[in-house]
Design a protein that fits this description.
The protein is mainly α. The protein has nine helices and two strands, in the order H-H-H-H-H-H-H-H-H-E-E. The chain has two domains: 63 residues; 130 residues. The termini are far apart.
């Protein structure tokens, strides 16, 4: 059959040749299985880190055993344990972002939404959640209290709407800066094994609201003072 077809291009060079289509079908069939493998590794990694706390770091062997998978399955998705830890941190912050966004729907005013956001973030320092969050951050940042700042991005987005309602001319930047401040405070409490006081939460809410009017002379396109 192949000899009867005139191919004017290089063999296998077409954008949609048989080899490419077969390869795509193979990947499509495997995607559900691979997604399940990754979820099992993420959940197992989180559980093993929770058990180890800040006393020791889990080995890949511990994680794959807890997941009921093989080393081959682990390295099919993650080049290293650090890559898995980074994915667990990303997964957790995305879940936190969805949680605080849901909590914010229970308030009617922008100030109320901001308070719900602050309370949702600070709740990560409470009880068993705190131990798990601390273990992940400790593994991700070698135990440095400054490390939690890398987790701020995914939780900033829900703040943009309320900040815009309050008159922010740079809601994305404001939300990002406030998320770094909140997550930094959270990190301090986690590493100190303390919980935020009501006074701290009130202060952080007031800080977030006040920050909206803190840059009236800034060019939001370039971040430079307006002339």
């Amino acid at each position: 059959m192949q000899n009867a077809v005139r191919d004017e291009g290089a063999p296998g060079s077409g954008p949609d040749d048989v080899a490419a289509r077969v390869a795509r079908r193979t990947l499509d069939r495997r995607t559900p299985d691979y997604t399940g493998e990754v979820r099992r590794l993420l959940d197992a990694g989180l559980e093993v880190m929770r058990r180890c706390g800040t006393e020791s770091r889990p080995r890949v062997a511990d994680i794959v055993a807890a997941a009921g998978l093989s080393n081959d399955a682990f390295y099919r998705h993650f080049p290293s344990k650090d890559a898995l830890v980074a994915a667990i941190l990303e997964d957790g912050t995305e879940r936190l972002g969805r949680y605080v966004a849901h909590q914010m729907t229970k308030a009617d005013t922008p100030e109320g939404k901001i308070r719900r956001w602050v309370e949702g973030v600070m709740a990560q320092a409470e009880d068993e959640i705190a131990a798990t969050t601390l273990a992940v951050l400790w593994n991700a940042g070698a135990g440095r209290p400054g490390a939690p700042g890398s987790a701020a991005g995914p939780i900033a987005a829900p703040l943009e709407g309320p900040l815009t309602e309050l008159g922010s001319t740079a809601p994305v930047l404001d939300a990002t800066l406030l998320a770094y401040a909140a997550v930094g405070l959270l990190g301090q409490h986690l590493f100190a094994r303390t919980t935020p006081t009501p006074a701290e939460i009130d202060h952080l809410v007031a800080f977030c609201v006040a920050a909206v009017g803190a840059h009236p002379g800034v060019d939001t396109q370039g971040g430079r003072p307006k002339e």
